[in-house]
Amino acid sequence: MALVRGSRQSKLGLRLPDITERRPRFPPTASQLPKTTASQQPTTTADYETVQVLGHGNGGTVYKVVQKKTSNLFALKVVNAGSDPTMRRQVFREMDILRRTDSPYVVKCHEIFEKPDGDIAILMEYMDAGTLDSLSKTGGALTERTLAHVARQILNGLNYLHAHKIVHRDIKPANLLVNKNMEVKIADFGVSKIMHRTLDACDSYVGTCAYMSPERFDPDSYGANYNGYSGDIWSLGLTMLELFVGHFPLLPTGQKPDWATLMCAICFGEPPSLPEGVSDEFRGFIECCLQKDSGKRWTASQLLSHPFCRQPDNN
Ligand SMILES: Nc1ncnc2c1ncn2[C@@H]1O[C@H](COP(=O)(O)OP(=O)(O)OP(=O)(O)O)[C@@H](O)[C@H]1O
């Protein structure tokens, strides 16, 4: 059964929970610390003041916070993991991956606060332009040129993750954070997976099913030796297409997605394609991402050399 992720109403208000016991399970390395706080002592959540709620997700609430001493802004994701085993598994997975990653294309984690009752708060770099989803909804569809810049950054992030045997499994516009410099970073590792062996299967129905690749629904038809990495590339292709056309490309505008309709569109329909009038490079790039047969899809490192990604940057 597909796990379609919905938003959970958080019990948390604007006041930050009192997470006073800081257990530095994963102390950041010097390179992981931001320049602005590298020389400072570890902090507690009492050192931060809430500015506003940035978003609610399945896993908790994300707050914009200011460090009282320095006035630096951060994002603080607070998860009430409590005794819910699924929630605990997700947050520990996210913590584990954030601890392992150090890339300019993956959202940076500065500190993790833990309380014995299960509340966990993850202090991250603040991305001041929101997500690619919110950006495209407020600013309209993105141009080819901007998308080439965006694609390069996501591919650099995926190339890094895949080289470290991490499959994201939930690439979509809402999980790609942006800042005012138009830097794009991959976030939300709640359903990601660390592959321990090269041929580890990665066939579980987790993530947002709208962006799932055909082989995740039907590994026999579309993905011999499916290992998950190429599923991230399908999701990237769909994300690029959505950001260009301005709506989720597999369904008519306004149609509410349900699992069966999506499954039919993804597995039995033609792969979605770009409208007339786009460059050959962009069309070719999307085709390389949206091959239904996972074995024919290009890898992140191959796509970084695709002519679409190699055009000059205007950002
Ligand atoms: N580092 C950040 N900087 C700015 N905004 C952020 C940051 N992290 C998260 N957000 C905002 O908070 C929202 C929810 O974050 P996130 O997706 O991590 O929560 P979640 O509980 O894991 O959600 P999901 O249900 O997708 O798993 C995001 O959509 C985004 O708007």
From TrEMBL:
Keywords for the protein's UniProt record, in alphabetical order: ATP-binding, Kinase, Nucleotide-binding, Phosphoprotein, Serine/threonine-protein kinase, Transferase
Keyword ATP-binding: yes
Database matches in Gene3D superfamilies: Phosphorylase Kinase, domain 1 (3.30.200.20), Transferase(Phosphotransferase) domain 1 (1.10.510.10)
Region Disordered, residue ranges: 1-44
Swiss-Prot/TrEMBL catalytic activity: L-seryl-[protein] + ATP = O-phospho-L-seryl-[protein] + ADP + H(+); L-threonyl-[protein] + ATP = O-phospho-L-threonyl-[protein] + ADP + H(+); L-tyrosyl-[protein] + ATP = O-phospho-L-tyrosyl-[protein] + ADP + H(+)
Alphabetical GO biological process terms: response to other organism; response to stress
Bias (Polar residues): 29-44
Binding site for ATP: K77
Protein kinase domain mapped to chain residues: 48-309
Any Pfam family the entry gives: Pkinase
EC number(s) per entry: 2.7.12.2
GO molecular function list: ATP binding; MAP kinase kinase activity; protein serine/threonine kinase activity
Membership in a protein family: Belongs to the protein kinase superfamily. STE Ser/Thr protein kinase family. MAP kinase kinase subfamily.
Protein name: mitogen-activated protein kinase kinase
Organism this protein belongs to: Mikania micrantha (bitter vine)
